[in-house]
Write a sequence for this structure.
């Protein structure tokens, strides 16, 4: 008589459960959360192709094919996402020379100074922020000011909608202030004294109705002549 | 989501009289059209690396320069340009 193996009370993990877990589940990964949107066979094909290309990359040392495949499936998957539509198309012409205009950088990438966390000195980590996605999506965004002379190594990032570890490694991926300073040193642009970030994963309604116009008026008061915005 | 947020902010700035240029990644190109964002530079980069890969200062600089060129040269609303 052989002892019966212990049966785990949990149901076996299905492939659908597995791929959905990348969307704020046990395998939460902002780079691959779109697996939640794919059908099982599409997700299986995607993963198999990634592994196939990874195998080749072991020999070539070139991850370009892997990156290209992820980028293409990301684009195809999000192309079907519903987004609000609007009727009007506001536009202000740029007048004058870039060399003379006060330019401000605005990034939705959740970058902030390490010594000035907008969520307080005990603000959540990137991993903790992922668990707070619903709070972020209900809340109104706040603007974080970053002085123009802030070096990249004084910056970090937190964002529940994309993998902010990338911006922690190199803020220039979403907040190219250092590059703008180089262009300013060359006399090609003029920069505002303060640049701005916010967390783009936020209530779209509150941003549209309560926040965006007030930010715009602040920028007018700061005599900003043009804005470079970066989405994440 | 974040691309939509940037689109809303860009629209508010333009209404207030401040010209804008927004950098989007390919995966969210459609948001530019639906929100009728004034000037958009679309980059062929992965989500979360809108301006360029980590440590690739040459690509990041090229993207910023292209965005600033679009800011200055666009002659009407909904001008979308690929890097």
């Amino acid at each position: 008589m052989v002892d019966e193996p212990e049966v785990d009370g949990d149901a076996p993990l299905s492939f659908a459960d597995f791929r959905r877990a990348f969307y704020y589940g046990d395998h939460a990964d902002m780079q691959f959360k779109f697996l939640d949107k794919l059908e099982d066979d599409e997700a299986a094909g995607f993963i198999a192709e990634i592994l196939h290309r990874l195998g080749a990359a072991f020999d070539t040392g070139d991850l370009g094919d892997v990156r290209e495949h992820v980028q293409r499936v990301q684009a195809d998957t999000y192309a079907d996402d519903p987004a609000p539509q609007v009727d009007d198309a506001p536009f202000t012409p740029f007048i004058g020379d870039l060399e003379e205009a006060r330019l401000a950088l605005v990034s939705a990438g959740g970058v902030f100074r390490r010594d000035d966390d907008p969520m307080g000195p005990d603000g959540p980590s990137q991993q903790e922020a992922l668990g707070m996605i619903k709070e972020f999506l209900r809340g109104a965004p706040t603007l974080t000011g970053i002085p123009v002379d802030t070096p990249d190594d004084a910056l970090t990032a937190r964002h529940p909608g994309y993998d902010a570890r990338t911006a922690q490694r190199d803020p220039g991926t979403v907040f190219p202030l250092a590059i703008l300073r180089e262009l300013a040193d060359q006399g090609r642009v003029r920069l505002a004294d303060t640049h701005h970030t916010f967390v783009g994963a936020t209530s779209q309604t509150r941003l549209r109705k309560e926040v965006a116009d007030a930010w715009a008026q602040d920028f007018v008061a700061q005599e900003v002549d043009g804005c470079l915005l970066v989405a994440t | 989501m974040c691309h939509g947020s940037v689109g809303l902010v860009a629209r508010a700035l333009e209404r207030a009289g401040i010209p804008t240029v927004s950098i989007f990644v390919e995966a969210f190109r459609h948001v530019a059209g639906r929100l009728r964002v004034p000037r958009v530079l679309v980059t062929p980069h992965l989500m979360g690396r809108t301006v360029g890969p980590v440590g690739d200062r040459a690509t990041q600089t090229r993207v910023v320069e292209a965005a600033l060129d679009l800011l200055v040269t666009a002659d009407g609303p909904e001008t979308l340009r690929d890097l």
